[in-house]
Amino acid sequence: VKTQTFSEKKIRISRDVLQEMRQKVAEIGNAFALAHGYNFRWDHRSYKDQGIEIVPTHKRGWAAEKLEKTGGVSRILSENQEIRQKNIELLLEKPEDLIRLVAHRKAVFTRQDLEEEILKRVGGDALLFGVLRDKVAGVKIAPSTVISIGLSRL
Predict the structure, then answer these.
(1) Residues near 30 by Cβ (< 8 Å), separated by ≥ 6?
(2) Is 59 helix (H, G, I), strand (E, B) or coil?
(3) Cα 52 to chain centroid, rounded
(4) In sequence order, which residues have a C-beta less than 8 Å from that of residue 7 and are 6 or more positions away?
(5) Could you read off the pLDDT of 106-116 as tens digits, one per residue?
(6) Region at 91 (left for phi over 0; alpha for psi -120 to 50; beta for the rest)
(7) Which helix (H) or strand (E) holds 16?
(8) Helical axes 111-122 vs 75-93, angle rounded to 10°
(9) Contact 147, 108 (CB under 8 A)
(10) Distance of alpha carbon 148 from its chain centroid, rounded?
């Protein structure tokens, strides 16, 4: 009796079908968010298909997390660190990609949302945070895409 390995038991889905499924999930999730007043959007497309040049990191599994906590070195965590460094370089060259990242996830966003994304990308590095924040602040955005919110005093 031959037993199957896990990979032989996997259900295989074609790339086209998978993309269609992801698109439908995004449409349903976005409709729900809009109907219930949530300020987020899902975009099923890859960074490349969104016109964003950064590279996605690899999924961090529980084993990598455990290794990191005990001071060990994980191949995935090392590769992710290299990817993060490369992405920081790409965002410094093209800071408008950081704005696109936030805009694809939120229908309306603030400077604080941009700063949170910058902090996520650079970790705790205050110098890199300041440099990238200044680069993003220098990006020209078409006035027709900006909503000004005035706060009136009572």
Answers:
(1) 41, 42
(2) coil
(3) 10
(4) none
(5) 878 889 999 99
(6) alpha
(7) helix 15-35
(8) 140
(9) yes
(10) 25
Would you give the DSSP letter of residue 10? Answer: S
pLDDT (tens digit per residue) in 84-140: 999 999 999 999 999 999 988 887 888 999 999 999 999 889 999 999 999 999 998
Place of tokens 């961090």: 60
Please report the DSSP string for 60-112 in residue order: P-HHHHHHHHTT---HHHHHHHHHHHHHHHHHHH-THHHHHHHHHH-SS--HH
Query: Is-contact 102 109, C-beta < 8 A?
Result: yes
In the three-class reduction of DSSP (H, G, I as helix; E, B as strand; rest coil), residue 129 is classed as helix
| Contact present, 77 and 44 (Cβ < 8 Å) | no
Give the single-character DSSP code of 4: P
The span from the CA of 114 to the CA of 57, in Å, is 20
Question: Residue 101: is it exposed, middle or buried by C-beta count within 10 angstroms (0-12/13-18/19+)?
Answer: buried
Quote the CA–CA distance of 121 and 84 in Å, as a whole number.
7
Q: What is the pTM of this model?
A: 0.72
> Token pair for residue 139?
């990006």
